[in-house]
Amino acid sequence: MDLLHRIRGRYAPAAGFGGAQVLVTGAPAFGVDFLSKAYGAFPWLVLAVLVISYLQLLRAFRSVVLPLRAVS
To answer: What is the value of pTM for the model shown?
Structure first.
């Protein structure tokens, strides 16, 4: 993964491809890109789970306070 970061950050820009997009493939590149996307979306995922849980508990118990206390 360190090599991938060096290729993307140092070697590809220094090669001077004239603004062309340089793509790196393979399992390490896929892993780095996947983790970047997953951790970038993680706060939104947690928020979505909390909101859906609140709405389901709100419907199940027909109370505003009880689901709020359960979620918080």
So the answer is: 0.61
